[in-house]
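Most newcomers find our protein records easier to grasp once they have seen one. To make this concrete, we reproduce a full record directly below:

…
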Amino acid sequence: MTRTRLYRNGTLELENFPVQDISEYVGDPDCMVWLDVRDPDSADFDMIAEEFGLHELAVEDARHEHQRPKLDSYRTHLFLSAYAVTTEPANGVFEASEVAAFITPNALITIRKGEHCRIDHVVERWDNSPDLAKHGVGFLVHGLLDYLVDGHFKAVQELDEAIENLEDLLFQESPKEIQAVQRRSFELRKSLVRLRRVVLPMREVVNSLLRRDAHVVTEPMMPYYQDVYDHVLRATEWTESLRDLVTTVMETNLTVQGNRMNMIMKKVTSWAAIIAVPTAVTGFYGQNVPYPGFGTHAGFWTSTVVMIALSALLYATFKRRDWI
């Protein structure tokens, strides 16, 4: 699946034209071309490399999955690797789709793997700022990065909300809720670790584009890239704080379980002490030797009163100390 766009002198002129026609516009300095390819095969990569004169190492990185977010510089183009992310608000499950981009002086080629990168949202950002198209390919790259970074920021926000919901379950007495806290804490921590691998390198990616030797960002586009960089920093710092927070939740959960176990042990011990009183009294009166009240009704009533009185005294004492 491919999509194409042609801008001439900052104005959108053609859309979804045949890929074979790209060669007619790539050499024109007044033209700016965008080509998007989803889930390309080997023939697609060969076509792209030949049409735009891309370096073989950059094409190889685009072919293979699980690349680290980065920006590589070659003689005629730049290679960008990044990720579009989504999370499930209910449980914080994290999903990522790899996005590769080749940036030439007058063309942007995006390679998408998976379905989580909604390219329509990127196109919508371009259409909402048509006055910026005159600033060259940096305009297209900004729309792509802005979409990706906003996705990172939204994912961090949803994970934050999931952790807040998890905190509400910390002090629940239900065994099912306790198990849910343990399971979801582990899942959220795993999602945050994966998100950190995606978000943290983006600082260097955007910072590299901001350098003047990259020749991508023109002076009028600089504030827009600075805004994207600010969002990257905020998402990074937020991710780091959430990692600490979910670790605290896990440690607090263990502490709560330990305290709950101590309370249970106190109650069991207290009831065991109360039960030990009648056991001791009946054991004493069960001796095979004569004692005061042996074989009489007075002995029975004395032992009964002693058991009730001592048990009530122990119960009142433990209750006052909140052991029962």
About this structure: DSSP finds nine helices and seven strands in the chain. The longest strand covers residues 94-104.
